[in-house]
Amino acid sequence: MARPPLSASALALATAFVLLAGACAPTAASRPESGAKQAAPAQQPAASPAGPALVALLAPLSAADEGARSAGQALANAAKMAETDIADPALRLRVYDTAGDPGRARAAAQQAVADGAGLILGPLFGANTPAVGDVAAAAGIHVLSFSTDSKVAGGPVFVSGFLPEAEAARIIGFAAARGYDRIAVFHPLTDYGMAAVRGAEEGARRSGAQVVATQAYERSFQGIQDAAGPFAGAARAAGATAILLPDSGQGLRSVGAFMDYAGLDPAVTRYLGLGQWNSSATLQEPALRGGWFPAPDPAQLDRFAGLYAARYGARPPLIAVLGYDAMQVAGQLLAEARIARSGDPFSRAALTRPEGFQGALGPVRFEPDGRNLRALAILEVGPRGFAVVDPAPLRLDLGS
Q1: Cα(170)–Cα(174) distance, rounded to whole angstroms?
Q2: Per-residue pLDDT averaged across 186-197, rounded?
Q3: What are the φ and ψ backbone dihedral angles of 118, each rounded to 5 degrees?
Q4: Are 198 and 165 in contact (CB under 8 A)?
């Protein structure tokens, strides 16, 4: 029997997706990319327990891409804001422009080392991080990259961005604890999508859940349409109780429409997402209502945004938090090294301490493998907004 025609809303999405797919796709300047891990620092430079300590921030202030420039300026602004809040005369921040280019990033890191930097914050992109890691390894210092690509973590490099693996593990654990323990994953054929699958599998192992089906799709209207039907059949046959949809924007709206068209009832099979769901686009697809996703605590985010706006005149993008937190980590470590009379404030042992650090949105911890763990709330999609259904933890479980 022939399938019924798509609804008017789904047909409208088809046109919109074709028009917007190019704009939604990440550019070469803004897309996190993988790179080889670097060797661990051979040594740490000596530093006076009383300071001064120079912290270098690498940001794409003159990148060709406007979004990259804006993100870079927000990171720099937030780091300067943290420097002011810390008010430690021994802690100095200096900003270097990478232009979003690996060669410029390497040169900026070399200049930072020559200037005496004891810690590097940035760069923004995973594609630029290995070059900076090479310079840091040779100098015996560490890097807190703002990338969300865990593949560039390791050696002297720690990634501080919101990691899809960690977000997937958080949402899978939450869903499993509420009886949604048979998970199917419908994901774009991208690095982000594959990272979400790894996180879902990790979260399932920790929580006793099971990933019962996975299906990748080309991130286009036709690609989603072609893959949705077979995936829905496989998910039903496997007895899936929840579907993880790690997409965003127009792609997510199309996915939601096709899941509904393929007969997956969100009242029976819970939809789950990642932090990219935290967008007005998610609210525009009725099929996603009732879905759950992890995100920073909204009250803490509003507080940070208000303080930033009071200083810089506009609400910041979420990525600005990373600049603030990285500088706060530097400040906390320098203060503690002074008390302990340590000449090594930014050592690997200090950066990976089990209790982590207090960031603008809650606790954050750097793991020995170079990844990070952040405290995230769980939000539910409503008809007009998002509601917190599980608050972000006030501390990170030391065994997590």
Answers
A1: 6
A2: 97
A3: -100, -10
A4: yes
Nearest Cα neighbor of 261 from 286, 244, 280 is 286
Q: Which pair of structure tokens corresponds to residue 335?
A: 């203060």
Give the phi and the psi of residue 129 in degrees, each rounded to 5. Answer: -65, -40
Distance separating alpha carbons of residues 327 and 86, to the nearest angstrom: 9
What does the pLDDT look like over 204-248, one tens digit per residue?
Answer: 999 999 999 999 999 999 999 999 999 999 999 999 999 999 999
What's the burial of 211, exposed, middle or buried (CB within 10 Å: 0-12/13-18/19+)? buried
In angstroms, what CA-CA distances link 189 with 149, 152, 173, 215, 253?
A: 15, 20, 24, 9, 17
pLDDT, tens digit, for every residue of 334-344?
A: 999 999 998 88
Cα distances (Å, whole numbers) of residue 366 to 193, 290, 312, 318? 23, 32, 29, 19
By CB atoms closer than 10 A (0-12, 13-18, 19+), residue 42 is exposed
- CB contact set of 260 (below 8 Å; sequence gap of 6+): 266, 287
Whether the per-residue pLDDT at 5 is higher than 60: the answer is no
Cα–Cα distance measured from residue 53 to residue 346, given in angstroms and rounded to the nearest whole number: 10
List the beta strands (DSSP E) in the chain.
53-59, 91-97, 117-121, 142-145, 157-159, 182-188, 210-217, 242-244, 270-272, 292-295, 357-359, 362-366, 372-374, 377-381, 386-390
Cα separation, 217 vs 228, in Å, equals 8
The backbone torsions φ and ψ at residue 101, rounded to the nearest 5 degrees and listed phi first, read: -120, 135
- Do residues 386 and 296 touch, judged by C-beta distance below 8 A? no
- The dihedral formed by the CA atoms of 325, 365, 146 and 375, expressed in degrees to the nearest 10: -80
CA distance 237 to 351: 46
Separation of CA 286 from chain center: 26
CA-to-CA distance for 67 and 84, rounded, in angstroms? Answer: 26
DSSP per-residue string spanning 311-361: HHSSPPPTTHHHHHHHHHHHHHHHHHHHHHT-S-TT-HHHHT-TT-EEETT
Distance, in Å, from the CA atom of 167 to the CA atom of 103, rounded to the nearest integer, reads: 31
The model's pLDDT over 309-354, given as tens digits with 9 standing for 90+, comes to 999 999 999 999 999 999 999 999 999 999 999 888 999 999 999 9
